[in-house]
Write a structure and sequence with these properties.
The complex is a heterodimer. Helices cover 23% and strands 18% of the residues of chain A. Chain A has a domain at 5-159 and 184-303 and 400-422 and 463-527: FAD/NAD(P)-binding domain, CATH 3.50.50. Chain A has helices at 14-24, 63-66, 110-114, 124-138, 162-175, 219-225, 272-282, 357-366, 376-383, 427-446, 509-525; strands at 5-10, 30-33, 75-78, 180-181, 229-231, 235-241, 247-253, 259-269, 308-314, 327-331, 347-352, 387-394, 403-411, 417-422, 450-455, 492-494. In chain A, helix 1 (14-24) packs parallel to helix 6 and helix 1 (14-24) packs parallel to helix 11 (509-525). By secondary structure, chain A is an alpha/beta fold. Chain A is built from eleven helices and 16 strands. Chain B is built from seven helices and no strands. Chain B has one domain. Chain B is mainly α. The radius of gyration of chain B is 23 Å and the shape is elongated. Classes of the chains: A alpha/beta, B mainly alpha. The interface between A and B is large, with 70 and 53 residues. The structure holds flavin-adenine dinucleotide and iron/sulfur cluster (SF4). Flavin-adenine dinucleotide binds at residues 10-16, 33-36, 61, 84-88, 91-93, 95-100, 204, 235-236, 270-272, 275, 279, 463-464, 496-497, 507-509, 512 of chain A.
Chain lengths: 532, 148
């Protein structure tokens, strides 16, 4: 048995890293258990000639395809959107695309403003200092003055517009619609020991240059210097409880597959919107037969993705192709509820550059655009570097039938039951996607693009995993309270995307991390009476 | 037969099919996907896709009544059309392996004006663009919904 720690964090991704760093100043004994490995910059695909191919093997976004020993399988057969993630130090930030919008003030008040779902127990104003702190820690590039947001000040200048961004900017101006350079956690200047972006253009499967802020190179080095211990290859099977119904620690498998017990005073779960409900549902006992922290029955329920409607086309001049970070602009023109539409809530447009050579060939062949045989070469030359596209990131509303449960058969390499996803697109999301597709086609037409293609929802687009252990003031309607503490188990906290009440229509990591910092701060403020 | 190399018959059919997908072109000065180097790369790169590739090739052989390669050229087009209509995921995966190897060949990349190198460490240049394009957006009043 290991020595007892004050705080045990499970999961080292976006939220786990932020909470570890923030709590480090308390000088408590803090340990993080992470099932995956450290990834070295030299491991990343963009170092080698097989860089595009590795997106389909050891750096695939789907854990089922990637199938590293550190991954766990996910049964997502019953979902039109498949889960993507990464399991390792940095979690899914290793593979994220670093697009970094915040939720808007209205996102925290959806019941009050729009009569749907529930209000959050926190608001934008409360989170504002934590957004700013997180922007500093992750290193955000962007531009102040966006009329779609309350004032904010990104610490670095924005990503370049490039040829593709310029096309989109002109098109949006023609339509009179909002656009703005995206907040992004890609360093545009040398920043806190990180080198600036050199436009490798393959950001998603990891940045060999270290310009993309995954938490293994932002929060973790600082947290470890401040005394936090991070134990890799440690897969937690279950959180244990004592005779008082308090969390007592966790049982995990070490790098040799040997079962270990780690006792702790406080347990913080940061395994993401699929990994967290899986772990809680696997943590059953006589006192908690339906899983830990699950008196409400809501653990695993209300799973929200952001259904993505991707629309793209081809223009007659060569653009940036895959050079440069792919996401550089956003539009919030259709973000806020407009009662004249047939849906409530709204979406962000994120604008992309093009595809690299192989991805263009694969996608265009699959879409029937690129023929086999003699014509292949001629058509391919019309497509390569001529693609531009944009995606509507649609707000998904919470619906209890969209859920994570335990698969009765499927298990990971340690025999731990794997998660099963049941998800259908809600009517509101569907109508919103249709709206987004129609507007995106107008944008592409204004940008002079033809040969239009659509993928909606993006199949392998389950990158935002939200809502499966929601926060709230009412213990019957939520899993954790307004500062992340379980209603049922008073020394158990959840800090990842699973605590979201609604999903908003933006990429979530900025807000996930701001919430994690806020919860860490709430813990620090209440240390004397944390369990009251 | 997971992880076993393809049989000689499967290998022949795959090569013949690779040439049907991407034939050599004198006009563009590029090899076909059945070129020695490229096809060698394809065989080495089957990896986790081997089973699907084999499933697709078995289907192709069945449609060809034995061997796709041995079909007279005038019958191949018909078999390919049926194969493409029915091939589903295994065929998509086979095609992906062919494309993955073809579009990283030095000769092919040069013909597309791309340097045959990995992205790191040299990177690329992306122009900054004209930020005055933002002026009309800057002029807009804040339009996020306020909550009291
Ligand atoms: C391809 C891709 C692109 C994305 N692009 C963007 C983007 O542009 N912008 C954006 O905002 N977001 C993006 N995301 C989403 C973003 O990565 C996530 O929102 C964010 O990382 C979630 O943080 P988290 O802390 O909830 O979980 P994660 O970062 O996923 O971390 C969870 C960690 O917990 C560990 N873990 C899980 N179970 C256990 C266990 N039982 N024992 C031990 N360890 C465990 C995992 O190994 C993992 O390291 C993207 C994601 C992907 C996959
Ligand atoms: S484009 Fe920039 S952030 Fe992306 S991989 Fe290249 S250097 Fe890294």
């Amino acid at each position: 048995m290991h020595d007892k720690v004050d705080v045990l964090i499970i999961g080292s991704g976006a939220s786990g890293a932020a909470v570890a760093w923030s709590l480090a100043e308390t000088r408590m004994r803090i340990l993080c258990l992470e099932q995956g490995d450290w990834i070295k910059p030299t491991d990343y695909p963009s170092n080698g000639r097989d860089w595009e191919a590795r997106f389909f093997s050891d750096f695939a976004t789907s854990p089922n395809r990637r199938a590293r020993p550190t991954d766990y399988p996910i049964n997502d057969d019953n979902s039109p959107i498949k889960v993507v993630n990464f399991n390792g130090v940095g979690g899914s930030t290793i593979l994220y695309t670093a697009h970094f919008p915040r939720l808007h003030p209205s996102d925290f008040r959806v019941r009050t403003l729009d009569g749907v779902a529930d209000d959050w127990p926190v608001d934008y104003e409360t989170l504002e200092p934590f957004f700013a702190e997180n922007d500093r820690m992750m290193g955000v590039s962007g531009l102040a003055g966006d009329p779609a947001y309350p004032p904010k000040q990104p610490p670095m200048p924005p990503l370049p517009l490039g040829k593709s961004g310029t096309r989109f900017a002109k098109a949006m101006n023609k339509l009179g619609w909002h656009w703005w350079p995206s907040d992004s956690t890609i360093a545009t200047t040398d920043y806190e020991g990180r080198a600036r972006c050199i436009n490798l253009g393959h950001c998603t499967p990891g940045c060999a240059q270290g310009a993309k802020a995954s938490t293994d190179i932002t929060y973790w080095p600082q947290a470890i210097r401040a005394g936090v211990e991070l134990r890799t290859r440690s897969r937690v099977r279950e959180i244990t409880t004592d005779e008082h119904g308090m969390a007592s620690g966790a049982i995990y498998y070490d790098a040799d597959g040997v079962e270990q017990f780690q006792p702790a005073e406080v347990v913080i779960v940061a395994c993401n919107g699929v990994g967290t409900p899986r772990l809680l549902l696997n943590s059953t006992s006589g006192r908690f037969p339906n899983g830990l922290a699950n008196a409400s029955g809501l653990v695993g329920k209300n799973l929200m993705f952001h259904p993505y409607a991707n629309v793209y086309g081809y223009v007659d001049e060569p653009l940036d192709g895959n050079h440069g970070p792919p996401l550089c602009l956003w539009s919030q023109e259709f973000y806020e509820t407009d009662r004249t539409r047939d849906f409530v809530r709204g979406y962000t447009f994120q604008f992309g550059r093009g595809y690299a050579a192989i991805l263009e060939a694969i996608n265009s062949t699959a879409a029937g655009r690129l023929p086999w045989g003699e014509e292949h070469h001629r058509i391919y030359r019309q497509l390569l570097n001529h693609r531009i596209g944009l995606s509507a990131i649609c707000e998904d509303l919470p619906e209890e039938h969209n859920r994570v449960t335990l698969d009765p058969q499927l298990k990971d390499s340690h025999g731990i039951p794997a998660p099963k996803i049941d998800y259908t697109l809600g009517a509101n999301s569907r109508r919103m996607m249709e709206h987004g597709i129609a507007r995106a086609k107008e944008v592409l037409a204004a940008a002079g693009a033809g040969n239009i293609g659509t993928e909606a929802p993006i199949l392998n687009g389950g990158w935002h995993l939200l809502g499966t252990a929601r926060m709230g003031d009412d213990p019957e309607r939520s899993v954790v309270n307004g500062w992340g503490r379980s209603h049922d188990v008073k020394n158990l906290f959840i800090v990842d995307g699973s605590i979201w009440v609604t999903s908003g229509g933006v990429n979530p990591t900025s807000t996930i991390q701001a919430l994690a910092l806020y919860i860490a701060d709430s813990i620090k403020q209440r240390l004397a009476n944390l369990f009251d | 037969m997971p992880d076993e190399p393809l049989t000689p018959a499967e290998t022949r059919d795959l090569r013949c099919l690779a040439a049907a997908i991407i034939p050599a072109s004198a006009y563009y000065g590029v090899p076909g996907a059945d070129d020695d180097l490229i096809f060698g790369d394809i065989l080495k790169s089957l990896g986790r896709d081997r089973d699907d590739v084999r499933t697709a090739l078995t289907h192709l052989a069945t449609l060809s009544g034995g061997s796709f390669t041995d079909l007279p050229p005038d019958r191949r087009a018909g078999v390919i059309a049926t194969f493409r209509a029915q091939g589903a995921t295994p065929l998509a995966i086979l095609t992906r392996v062919v494309l993955l190897c073809y579009y990283r060949d030095d000769r092919v990349m040069r013909s597309l004006n791309m340097e045959p190198r990995p992205p790191f460490p040299k990177g690329h240049v992306v122009e900054q663009g004209d930020w005055s394009l933002l002026d009309p957006v800057r002029a807009r009043a804040p339009f996020y919904r306020r909550v009291s």
